[in-house]
């Protein structure tokens, strides 16, 4: 049995998984200031590891199109073995940004004499994330708070609340083998589209 896919246009790599993977489907939910969630179904003629072996691993997806390549990058928070398709083993994988780890811890905490960027960097580093993957592109002068309270929220919800109060919005920027979370308060930070013109087809 053969599985149809455009391997020239869609490629997927999972860190430390040596099997030759074929990407069968990809569906993603994305919104401003929210954590994206992407579901991948991959197949391989090689022996695939058990689902637990996939969790926490980084994934890179490359989609090649008319105007260049687009990338998705993140970590796996869920993996499920699907029914085999002939000689191919299949897995369903759930890909999330690294910031998803901030949703896994909720606490009560008081921060004193720190700005919102100071608190954000502290939360980011405590989660074990690379500091250069958090980009704070702010035009305004941010205040230093006498105290701010995290009131039983997850680290992610607390982080978003602090930036919302500054009028900032967050989005993710993906590149080959990497992604960054950007918080910004100005329109100039938004990525430009890959093309100024869209291809149209008429019947």
Would you mind describing this structure in some detail?
With 203 residues, this protein is mainly β. It has 2 domains: 9-96, Pnp Oxidase, Chain A (Roll), CATH 2.30.110; 100-189, 3-Layer(bab) Sandwich (Phage tail protein beta-alpha-beta fold), CATH 3.55.50. The chain contains 2 helices and 11 strands; from the N terminus they run βββββββαββαββ. The chain has a 6-stranded antiparallel beta sheet, with no helix packed on it. Strands 8-11-10 form a 3-stranded mixed beta sheet. β2 (22-29) and β3 form a beta hairpin. The longest helix has 11 residues, at 116-126.
Name the descriptors.
Phage tail protein beta-alpha-beta fold; single chain; mainly beta; Pnp Oxidase, Chain A; 11 strands
Helix and strand pattern: EEEEEEEHEEHEE
User: Using DSSP, what is the number of strands?
Assistant: 11
Radius of gyration: 20 Å
Annotated CATH homologous superfamily of the largest domain: Baseplate protein-like domains
pLDDT < 50 runs, ≥5 residues:
1-7
| CATH C-level of the largest domain | Alpha Beta
| Class from secondary-structure proportions | mainly beta
- Percent strand: over 45%
Number of domains: 2
């Amino acid at each position: 049995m053969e599985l149809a896919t455009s391997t020239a246009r869609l490629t997927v790599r999972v860190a430390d998984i040596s099997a030759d993977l074929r990407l069968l489907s990809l569906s993603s939910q994305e919104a401003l200031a929210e954590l994206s969630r992407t579901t991948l179904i991959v197949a391989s003629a090689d022996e695939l590891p058990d689902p637990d072996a996939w969790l926490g691993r980084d994934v890179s997806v490359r989609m090649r199109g008319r105007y260049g390549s687009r990338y998705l990058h993140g970590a796996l928070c869920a993996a499920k073995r699907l029914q085999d398709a002939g000689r191919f083993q299949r897995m369903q994988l759930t890909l999330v940004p690294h910031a998803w780890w901030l949703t896994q811890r909720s606490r009560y905490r008081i921060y004193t004499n720190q700005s919102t960027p100071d608190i954000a960097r502290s939360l980011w580093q405590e989660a074990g994330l690379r500091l250069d993957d958090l980009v704070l592109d702010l035009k305004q002068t941010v205040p230093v708070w006498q105290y701010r309270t995290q009131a039983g929220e997850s680290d992610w919800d607390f982080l978003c609340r602090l930036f919302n109060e500054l009028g900032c919005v967050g989005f993710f920027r993906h590149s080959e083998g990497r992604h960054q979370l950007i918080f910004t308060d100005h329109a100039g930070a938004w990525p430009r589209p890959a093309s100024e013109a869209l291809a149209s087809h008429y019947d």
